[in-house]
Amino acid sequence: MAAGWGARGFYTSTATLADMQAATAWRAATGDTAVIRLDVLGKIDTFDGIDQISPTDAEITALVTAVLASFSDRATLPLAGFTETDTFFAAKARFNLFDTCNTWIGSVLRAAGLPFVRWTPFSRIRPWPWAVRNWPRPGAALHSTGRPLPASMR
Hints:
This protein is of the alpha+beta class. The protein has one domain (about 1-154). Helix content is about 25%, strand content about 25%. Strands 1-2-5-4 form a 4-stranded antiparallel β-sheet. Strands 3-6 form a two-stranded parallel ribbon. The longest helix is centred in the middle third of the chain and has 13 residues, at about 55-70. The chain is globular and about 40 Å long.
């Protein structure tokens, strides 16, 4: 599963750089409402080019808790996604030049007790893609689509 946080206008309308509009980029830089995007990645056969972390069960629970704490509402937004399995949710906070998706990733990783620099330009781990290995755990509850559900959403 992939989770991301970003500026609503930019994140929901810019699938590729060719889709970028100056007004949307300006709104993202100066302040826009935030959204969370969830997507199902499926099995990843190779981790070439993907930085990996191997959290404990407690760290995974803390990571899911931190991501869920970023939601302002658990209802899906009526926005078209970019894949057949992604969806957007309203998020807390506002996206801007100083509070970016990389800042969000760092904050949820640190909230889970995982190491990440305070200021993301100094990060050695690329903000995306990265992978949490060994999740879901065997026997984890799954959504009807086969997607894993965190315990707090079961």
